[in-house]
Amino acid sequence: RIFQFYKESKLNKEIIELRNAVISAQIIVNSALHNKKSIGCHYIKE
Question: Per the domain annotation, does 19 fall within a domain?
Answer without folding.
Answer: yes
